[in-house]
Amino acid sequence: MFTAPPKLHITLMMLVLLNDDEKRRIAEDVEKMCSSLQPSLKNLPELTLQGLDIMNDDPTDVNVLYATVKDPSNSLQNFSDTLLEKLKPHPFTVDDLNRDSVKIHVTLMKTSADKQRKTRNGFDATKILEKYQDFYFGKFSPKSIHISARFNQDHSTGYYACLHEINL
């Protein structure tokens, strides 16, 4: 249920890539997009992880609990929203791009789907949210953007296998 420390990361968006050709093509396309958007991230200030939130509206039946990312300059949010807009017409299936803004977050807890029933059993996060709603996790400076393979692991780091990395 808890995200393993080596796998903690900021999630910008999820892509559904079905084969190696799609993975290669999205890496190339995101690289091109990022090269034009990268100047907006050159002077990115430290980001702050502070506060908890959930992906749904019912704190008694939660599937994802996450830490919020605070960006005083709004640079990462602007970059992410622009990237989202550029990916909307992309030929690959992209998860939930029918929105106007990216929810930048760090997943801390999530339930796993029951593969046979394709359902999730949520948990009650009420007390966690009450106690740690404004919890200060710390500050950090992102160094790169990864396109990560969700179900594959780099055994040397414990992190997801990196399909492509763009240094900031």
Automatic annotation (TrEMBL):
Source organism per UniProt: Thelohanellus kitauei (Myxosporean)
SUPFAM superfamilies referenced in this protein's UniProt entry, alphabetically: LigT-like (SSF55144)
Residue span(s) of domain A-kinase anchor protein 7-like phosphoesterase: 1-168
Biological process (GO), any one: DNA alkylation repair
Highest taxon above the source species: Eukaryota
UniProt cross-references to InterPro entries, sorted A to Z: AKAP7-like_phosphoesterase, ASCC1, Cyclic_Pdiesterase
One Gene Ontology cellular component: nucleus
Protein name stated in the entry: Activating signal cointegrator 1 complex subunit 1
Signal peptide limits: none
